[in-house]
Amino acid sequence: MVENYLAQLEMPAEPELLYTPISYSMQGGGKRLRPVLLMLSYGLFAEDYQRALPAAAAIEVFHNFTLLHDDIMDNALLRRGKPSVFAKWGKNVAILSGDAMMIEAYQLLGRTQTEDLRSILTVFSETAMEVCEGQQYDMDFETKQKVSVVEYMRMIELKTSVLLAGAVVIGAMLGGASKEDCKALRRFAIELGLAFQLQDDLLDSYGDERLGKAIGGDILEGKKTYLMITAMSRANEEQREVLRSTHLDARLSRAEKIARVKAVYDELDIPHLTEVQIAIRFECALSQLDNLQADPARVEPLREYAKSLMGRNK
């Protein structure tokens, strides 16, 4: 339903360099995670799914807008296995098309048939601002000498979790949920987002290239992920020096750099510690669904979808 609705969104033909990149980015695939969460949350309390589609599309357009601007800031040439808008059309086009996508997101939200549009717009705007805060913290961490686990978790909560939270809350509000149910769903999405991002951190170093991205990218960039920050907090001085300097050593190949850092991770049991934290966050997310004043049969699809995101069977 989400894909069909997005496919029917017609962009003007002119100016071509404003609208063509928008269509290109929206057709680039992706999990459609945020709009699906919105639709499932709406379905907890109501059945007319068509009514939730404009809001679901708004969330997805906004998410893709952030990716356009993220790619500029990260100098990223690829997005979902294809040239990024930044790489294909240049920085100025990516900035302006991204701006237009944010405006389009608000226009889509404005099509939502609800008497509570003002409250939904407030949730959407607060969410959007928090996403920007998370991106700024992420950039700050690139030059900050020391980042704590608490600081990192707050950053990924803002950068990743809050948009999931905004999606489920808006879906629930449209469905007529109580404030208590909205709070429980927000907590569910925050914890799910944290688990999801920590899993992404782990897979970047210990995953499989069939996932669609090269393994070890975070290590090669010297990025302050959960794995790196936790390792630095547990390492001795010799291990810290390896973690600090390996990605900068021009004498080492890419494979050697990845292997050297992962050897320290393994010595410090970092993969297991990360898996434990993922499990804690994920179980906390699922427990919030038990607090909902909704038909358990309606909750089950949301629970199963959450499990599928984490690659869980139970």
Summary keywords:
314 residues, mainly alpha, 2 strands, 73% helix, 1% strand, globular
Task: Report on this structure.
The protein has helices at about 1-5, 15-25, 35-45, 55-75, 85-90, 90-110, 115-145, 150-175, 180-205, 215-220, 225-235, 235-245, 255-265, 270-290, 295-310, and strands spanning about 80, 80-85. The relative contact order is 0.10. Helix 7 packs antiparallel against helix 8 (about 150-175). It has a two-stranded antiparallel ribbon. Helix content is about 75%, strand content about 0%. The protein has about 325 residues and is an all-alpha fold.
Compile the SSE list and pairings.
Elements: H1 2-7, H2 16-26, H3 33-43, H4 53-74, E1 78-79, E2 82-83, H5 85-89, H6 91-110, H7 117-143, H8 149-175, H9 179-206, H10 217-221, H11 226-234, H12 237-245, H13 254-267, H14 270-289, H15 296-309
Antiparallel strand pairs: 1-2
Helix pairs in contact: 2-6, 3-4, 3-8, 3-15, 4-6, 4-8, 7-8, 8-9, 9-14
